[in-house]
Amino acid sequence: MQRIGDAPAVRRLLVGAAVLLAGLFLLLPLVAIFAQAFSQGIGVFWSNISDRYTLAAIGLTLLIATLTIPICLAFGVALAWLVTRFEFPGRRLLQTLIDIPFAVSPVVAGLIYLLLYGRNGWIGGWLDAHDIQLMFAWPGILMVTVFVTSPFVARELIPLMQAQGSREEEAAVTLGAPGWTIFRRVTLPNIRWALLYGVVLTNARAVGEFGAVSVVSGAIRGQTMTLPLHLEQLYQDYNAVGAFASAALLALIALFTLAAKAGLEWRTARQEVTP
Amino acid sequence: MSALALPLPRRRVLPGFGLSLGISLTFVSLVLLLPMTGLVGQLKGLSLAEYWAIISDGRVVASYTVTIGAAALAALANAAFGLLLAWVLVRYDFPGKRLLDALMDLPFALPTAVAGITLATLYAGNGWVGGLLEPLGLKVAYTWVGIALAMAFTSIPFVVRTVQPVLEDLPPEVDEAAMTLGASDATGFRRVILPYLWPALVTGTGLAFVRSLGEFGAIIFIAGNAPFETEITALMIFVKLQEYDYAGASAIASVVLAVSLALLLAINVWQGHFIKRLHGGRG
Lengths: 275, 283
What we know:
heterodimer, A: 275 residues, 0% strand, B: 283 residues, mainly alpha
């Protein structure tokens, strides 16, 4: 059967153009990160990674990601269950509201948190009087990271759970299974790969967030610098190799994210073929 | 029992309504909505004249022009590039196709600051690409072209990932019908395929544009950040904050926030309109 654009010449031209452009525009930067990081040899790379401040930044970044994931997971699952299993007034509005973080510029996200919880804000003032500091400290970084990553899990789950429908869970109810068992034994096996990918996306954004975090961090070396802020500092100090060493670590997480997506898509496709 | 009386309105059979509603509403109120009150509170301290003076200041207005101009260029370039990539990924088989497909998500997976320093290094005068372009008189890094480039990099997946599934769903008979009626490739694409892809293409390009308006991390390294020339609006907010001018930062942020929310709403309405048409009234 003949289809539009099937002539060999057209095909070769379009594939060639796409591969060339994607290579220049997307692959070359990826190669450049590692080339720069190792441009002075593996020894220099290693000494940059094992630097005291880099290690502190890695530690803080891991802490933020580790705390962000369970919070976003609980919210994402609850919200997806709510909007796909029940009809109630305001359901559409709720689904629109969870997209707010996608529409808000990261810098603006950081700013609104700073205004509320900073010393001049109405909550911040009260916190200050009680000697609790959230902004310019790691709790503030955690708060804005939760804000920017909150839609990911829900966004992955909602379309899937909508498509699967609730018939299996309803059958479990008629068989007398308690709620938690239904979720664990019926729902979870159906959504596990989407759930996992939601976590992978949340993690990728949590370790890499820059704009929102840089507003609330206060940039204290060794204390409130996440890995992206740390590499910015190194880059501004003309330590390009050091900056790219940290960048390479973050790029590895990005590559892991891409691999996870490819792997999970393959599993989902297989699940659909053999239900 | 009442479950046997069929015409009754559907009741909540599944458990967990109260719990999931509680968690969702608490989270949405505390994390997403409450912080907005901080912005409102700060803005209330400004008179209308003060507010207008801040958002119409020459340097700030120059930043709107730079941001919108570069975002528009990036979105248009991505519309063409994204359409090409989606087409190639859906229609053809070739070695390395899965790799190319995976590569499309790189800009979403890669932290923006990493993208920022990498693009700045590549396109600087002594960089791999910049070193080739500058002898030709093309300066990318530290100009607004560099800003558009960084915006295009971070937002390309929006176009590809919006167009791709729609193109996959296009039945082969559509192509065949056009070809049997004697349409050339170009005519068939323009008259048959493009109208079908149009809603997805506009949505994807719109999302890319909105993302570009708010992008910060990927841009500031390559932008040069010269006042009136290469400052983006997100940076203006950041600069005001560093001067502890919270009112100024809030005023500019309110403009950015209003524009992006309005655009997102417009995209949703436009998309809903087309989905209704495609699925015969079902949302």
